[in-house]
Amino acid sequence: MPLLPLLLAALGVTMAVATTVQARTAASPVTATGPSTPPRQAASKRNDLAACAAADLDCRAFTGTLAWRPDERRPLLSSKALRRLALVRHLPGGERERALRCLAFIAWAEARSDGVEGMRAVVAVVLNRSRSPVFPVHPCEVIGQAGAFEPLIRKDHRATALALKRRALAPFPRPGNPIDAAALRTARLLVWNLARASEIHDPTRGATHFVAPAVLRQRGQAMPGWTGRMVRTARIGAHHFFRPRELALAAGQS
Fold first, then answer.
1. Cβ 233 vs Cβ 205: under 8 Å
2. Which of 9, 167, 195, 218 could pair with 85 as two cysteines, CB 3.0-4.6 Å apart?
3. Which CATH class is domain 50-202?
4. At what angle do helices 93-111 and 115-130 cross, to 10 degrees?
5. Is residue 241 a contact partner of residue 207, using CB atoms and an 8 Å limit?
6. How far apart are CA 20 and CA 25, in angstroms?
7. Residue 167 has pLDDT above 80, yes or no
């Protein structure tokens, strides 16, 4: 085939690809990540989780990706791994894995249908509460507060609720289908990534509460009264996130 037709054909393919990419980028929603980061790139950075290295047995044990199933009633992480968990460094060594298990559980139980960013948002709410003087410091105690998180009143999570009450190591749930099982592995990997990170993105902008309005409507229930006393900071998946009005004003939100 002559050279000129080949060049024109290649040019046509390149222009078609560029046009498609431009159209998809223009249709992407803008996220509140700052003007210097393109929306699609920012979302990719937040949602792409680093997988466990083959030799990192601590990561693979915590995320449930070992070739065998360890006894999860006992600690899975080595003392060396516990020392590297920046997220829970303020807790005693024996409490660090317990905190991570609680975070992975509540992220999965509350927001597995909202994907990584939805689960990240739930983790952020728990962490924001743990930093507030009106809530407990330990993430497990935040989650275990009476009436704080609806999944803990369900019969299928009774073992987790009992472990929280006893301040014991909570077992990971046993999902009933492959989709939920995959989501649990993602939740565990998300929490592991957060625990090892030096800086954490909070998609909720400091929220301490969240609610799922669509679920309430399906049940014929009204929005909780506390939503009127707070400022909505984000909407992620099916959940709306809120923070106290005085904190929102201090942060320049209205």
1. yes
2. 195
3. mainly alpha
4. 130
5. yes
6. 9
7. yes
